[in-house]
Amino acid sequence: MTPAVNGRVTLNGQPLSNLEVIYSLTYGDEHKLTARTDEQGYFSFPEKVIESNLPSKLFDETRVFQEIFVEWNNQNYTLWYTVLPGITSEKVVEEKLAKLECDLTHPEKEYHFDRQDGTDFTQGVFSICNFE
């Protein structure tokens, strides 16, 4: 399952309204959801249960590719891109996706968030959003 997403898209701090936001989830098959920003630039997606037609394997290395992006002035902007290690969501991913604050003037950065699964691994994310 992927968590609900809530975010806002701005340009130099000013909200961008009626902008199409695309949420792509790939686990075997690609699933695309779309939303539009409101007058204040806010958008949201509900949580989604991921199902697959892939056969079960004993040593399956399940990965879920998660991407949220917008196109503005013929350019794509990555609001969120990560590869999840399985079909269950990481707590840190849920927390970050609950409040995306994305300004199209910000450069895309790579972030590494501490996972809370008892390992020393981090969750890598590419995004123009501000997480600091």
From TrEMBL:
It comes from the Bacteria. Residues 5-106 form the DUF6795 domain. InterPro entries: DUF6795. This is DUF6795 domain-containing protein.
